[in-house]
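Supplementary Methods, section 5.1.

A reviewer requested that the exact input to the structure prediction be made available. We therefore reproduce it here, unchanged from the version used in the analyses.
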Amino acid sequence: MFNNAMGLILADNKKISLGELTGPRALSAVPFAGRYRIIDFMLSNMVNSGIKNVGVLTYNKYKSLMDHLGTGAAWSLDRKNDGLHILPPYVNSEVTNVNGDEELAGILDFLKTSRTTYVIVANSNVVLNTTFDDMIAAHEKSGADLTVMYNRDANKCGSPCYIIDCDENGFVKDMLYNPQKASSNKSSLGIICLRRDMLVDIISKQMSHGTSHFGIHSMVKMFDEIKVYAYEYAGTALRINNVQAYFKASMSLLDENVRDDLFWSGEPIYTKVKDEAPTLYIDGSSVNNTIVSDGCRIYGQIENSVIFRGVTVSKNTTIKNCVLMQDVHISENCHLENVILDKNSFVRPGVRLVGHSDYPVVIGKGAGI
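The structure derived from this sequence is encoded token-by-token as follows.
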């Protein structure tokens, strides 16, 4: 297992909004798959690769993320040396406004405290299960300055979408942002590998030129200045670029092949542990093709849905193609179809909510309808 690398995860993406779901929290803290947060997958990938020093770069709305990550104990990152580091947007307490210098200076300080050779930098909008050993080995073998991970689903990656075009040796020669007509089927997964000292030089140069934001693809765009190699990932990768993509990714978990690829065929995915009683299924309830977490009480009928911890579905209520997050309460005689309910929301008796599979109804955190 390769461990001569450190990790950097960008907790949010200024180009991605999930509406009500990212209103109270960062993108990486959005609940996913019944008991996880989106960041759990990338953080677990790094830990499973032997990376012991991981920084999480935050922009705003990071309280929920910090509550979830805690000391990093769930990922074995609560250690004296290295471990998990939350990198807030303010470098010092006197800063009252976030600007590019502050953001980049925080990253620079974190990078300079490490002695590792490489750094893996990843966005927070992709769910996959992998390790980075092979990617680092391919990076070394290619002689590239920077390596970007991609897969071949350019026609369904949503927006934002970065299409890369490569030469015959696998080096990037062009990159397009949300093109109307893609010149390639290779779409960046927002994960890069490069030498730590080189990233320090790039950030220092960006700061000297007044760059206002740190971004993965801004470095991939430097293919005219540095050698950028493209590394293909062939496994399941779920992009979460908008509400529709989140809903589609959640529903795809009901496919056994997708679940096997994300949870069983690779390394384990870790998350914050919560002790809950097993779910209680009352006589007369019916659950079909549904992921149900612990601590729930099921009195009604559920089909093709993802149910998080502590959810209550009352009698004579039908749930179909829905995502119900933690501690949601659905009253009696309701019908919900193609709906996403955020944490602690509740539905009053007799309510009927029906969305479309491409445009699900979204109820915000703590809301009552």
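The first strand starts at residue 5 and ends at 10. These observations are discussed further in the main text.
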